[in-house]
Design goal:
This protein is an alpha+beta fold and 191 residues long. 26% of the residues lie in helices and 30% in strands. The chain is built from five helices and seven strands; from the N terminus they run H-H-E-E-E-H-H-E-E-E-E-H. It has a seven-stranded antiparallel beta sheet, sandwiched between helices.
Length: 191
């Protein structure tokens, strides 16, 4: 597809690929765009033919612009040049540590060892204390374009038979300014 579209879907492609396991076929509905402007406000979070966001609800911080859902994303917010989104995948989706290290690699950094992964700060999401990765570097997307001085905040939490990802990326100073909002946003997520 077009380079810009592919670049915007890199994380989703990698998370999807990591979720593939031998054995059973997925029973999850196909991901499609919904006509709903605010999926978190919908009475039925699974519009006919739409993506099942696990019935999640949340409160977005003031100033975050809701870009709605897109393929494999429950919702995407923009704050200036910063992007924050929620994705849910069925099953373990490759595991918490593997996904955190995938994000670290996207920022051009070396993978975290077991001790570093265990030492990550924990934030509250869905009544669980989940690890939060905070990593700065040069983000390189699928298009091959490198974005310098970027930062990533992210958390991964298994819930029942799915895994929930919350990720924020953007210019380092802008992400730093949104860190408290990111943590509050994660804490507001309910199922």
């Amino acid at each position: 597809g077009p380079m810009g579209v592919l670049a915007s879907q890199e994380d989703n492609f990698l998370a999807f690929s990591a979720s593939i396991a031998p054995g059973a076929a997925s029973s999850a509905p196909a991901a499609t765009n919904s006509a709903a402007a605010n999926p978190h406000d919908m009475e039925d979070p699974t519009p006919e033919g739409g993506f099942n966001p696990g019935g999640l609800k949340w409160t977005a911080p003031e100033g975050w612009v809701d870009d709605g859902e897109s393929m494999m994303r429950v919702v995407t917010y923009t704050i200036g040049e910063v992007e924050c989104y929620i994705t849910t995948l069925s099953g373990g989706a490759g595991g918490v540590d593997a996904n955190i290290n995938r994000w670290v690699g996207q920022m051009g950094q070396e993978a975290l060892d077991e001790a570093a992964l265990a030492a990550l700060p924990k934030i509250s999401i869905l009544a669980t204390e989940a690890p939060m990765v905070e990593v700065a570097g040069n983000f390189k997307g699928m298009s091959g374009a490198e974005r310098e001085s970027f930062k990533l905040l992210g958390t991964v939490v298994p819930k029942d038979d799915e895994t929930i990802f919350v990720k924020m990326t953007g210019p380092e100073a802008e992400v730093d300014a949104q860190k408290d909002n990111f943590i509050a946003f994660c804490a507001s997520i309910q199922s």
